[in-house]
Amino acid sequence: MTSETTTDTLDRQNQQMTENLAKKISRLRDLAVDIETETKDSNRYLDRMDDDFNSTTGLLSGTMNRINIMMSSGKGNRKICCYLIVALVLVFLILYYLFSWLTSS
């Protein structure tokens, strides 16, 4: 009789350990699926970001080409470009101080 109760106790403990192991495996599987989903979402986001940067690069290179053409076309255009650059710097500085003043208030 003692061997039967010992066997039953061991069987019960074995089943309980098996159930605990199955729960842990299930949690690990769910975690792996969540990691896979997050990875796929991150890759999609990075791909879209790469496309945005590529289009911005094309836009900026076209703008730089136009500025280079305008700078090399003559003295009159150089004077206008200098005024334009100074005006843009001043606008930037005014906006910078305006935003810093608004955020500090």
Describe this entry's structure for a reader.
The chain is mainly α and 105 residues long. Helix content is 96%, strand content 0%. The mean pLDDT is 88.
Kindly state the number of beta strands. 0
Give the N-to-C terminal Cα separation: 85 Å
Average of per-residue pLDDT values? 88
Q: Give the C-alpha Rg.
A: 34 Å
Query: What best-fitting shape do the alpha-carbon axes yield?
Result: elongated
Number of helices: 2
The protein's oligomeric status is single chain
User: Which strand-content bin applies to the residues?
Assistant: under 5%
Given helix and strand content, the structural type is mainly alpha
Topology:
Layout: H1 2-72, H2 75-104
Brief overview, please?
With 105 residues, the chain is an all-alpha fold. The protein is built from 2 helices and no strands.
Keywords:
mainly alpha, single chain, 105 residues, 2 helices, elongated
